[in-house]
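Entry for the shared binder. Reason: the reviewer on the internal report wants the predicted structure included alongside the sequence.
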Amino acid sequence: MMPDYVTPSTRDSLQGDLAGVGLAELLLFLAQSQRSGRLEVRLRQNLGLALTLIGGRIAAVAGPLAPRLSDSLLTSGAPPQQVAAIGKALSQGKKLWELVVHFPVLRAVQEWRALCALLPWLHYQQGEFTFRAGPAAAAQGVEVPGLVLEATRRLDELGPAPDPLAVWSIPERPGDISAHLRELMPREWQVLSVIDGERPLAQAATQAVLPWDEFVRAVLRLESLGLLEARPAGVSKKHLVPGDPAPNFTLRALDGSAYSLGSRRGGKTLLAFFRHAGCPFCNFRLHQLIQAYPDLQAVGVEAVGVFGSPLETLRERAGRQRPSFPVLADPDDTVHNLYGTGNSLLGLLDPRGLGAYLRGLALGIPHGSVDGELLRMPAEFLIDEDLKVVRAHYGAHGGDRLSLQEVLAWGQAS
C-alpha cells in the first residue's frame, strides 16, 4: 500500500516533499516494497543526491554530496593499484556489485559511502524527491534497515548540529590564535583545508571524505577556538539583525587567556560592547552586569563584555571591579567593527546619558587617557544557543543599553 506522504507520478514512480516525509522513512518504504529504480533528492543551491536501488537495496550513490569512489577506496586503505583496477573494470562496463567477488573491499566501502551521503539528510525537511521505477531485479547492494539504524545512532550521539547547507568560513580577523593552532589535530587541519566560505558544510564534508558526524565535531571544536564561523565570506552589514549568525572572534580576557565566542554554542549569551576601560558610561554598565550576574546565571544567560582598550589598561581600570564573567580586550576595535558598532558626537553629548555617566564617575575608577574610540556608541546583542542574533541593540547615547528585565525575560522564556 502506498503511504499518504507520496504522490504517484506514473504507475510505478513516486514524488513528494521532504517536509512531509523523512528520508529514512522513504528509504525504509522502498526497501520493504523491494523497489528497483532511481531515487533523486533535490535540495537547494542545486545540490542533491541520486541513489540507485535494486530490489530495495542501495546499489549506487552519486551526486556532489556523495564521496567519490576512488577517494573512499584510498581512505579505506585500498592500494592504489587496486583502485586503478576497479576503475578500469568499471570503465569496461562492469557493474559495481559484480566486482565485490573480486574486490571484497568494495562491500564495506559502498556501505560507508552510502552512510556518508545520507547522514546529513536523514532528518532534513527541505527539498523534494522523485523515485522513477526501473526493471525488477534480484536484490543487491547495501541493506537499508541496517544503514538507517547506524545513521540514526550517529545522529543521536552527535546531538544538535549546524544546517548542512550553511556556508562557514575562516574569520577574516580571528585575533590571537597562535596557541590554538599548536593544539590542532590532523583531522581539524583536514577540515580547515576544505572550508572556503563558498561550499555548504555537507559538500565540504564530502570533499574531506569524512562522515557528517565526525566532520561536525571537528567544525564545532574549531568554532570554539575562534577558527571558524557560520558566516558566508564576503557578506558584511553595517548593522546585524535578528537571524544573522553572530560573527565569531577570539580576544584576550582579563586573565590573559584566549576567549572565543564559538565556545558559547549551546548557551545563551549577552554580548556587550564598551568604549574604553576608563569610560564612566561603560564602568557603570559593567557594575550593573556584575550586580545582575547571579540572576543572569540563574536563567542560563552568560554575559561577555568587549572593551576597545589594550589588556593592560583594561586590567588597571575596568578590571578593578573584578567581574566574574569574561571581559575582553579589543584594542584595535576589530570586533567592534565586525558587529557594526557606530560613532556619534551627538550621542556622546546627549543629556539622556548623563545619569549613567555620573554613576560611573562615582565608582572611583580613573578615566586616564582615552585609549579607545572616543565617540564609540554602546551596543548589546542577545545570542542564542545556535550563535544566531536574537536581539541587536545599537545605543543612541552613552547610557543606552538593553533593559536587564528584557534580558532576564529572554533567558526565562525557554
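Summary line for the report: Residues 1-6 have pLDDT under 50 and may be disordered.
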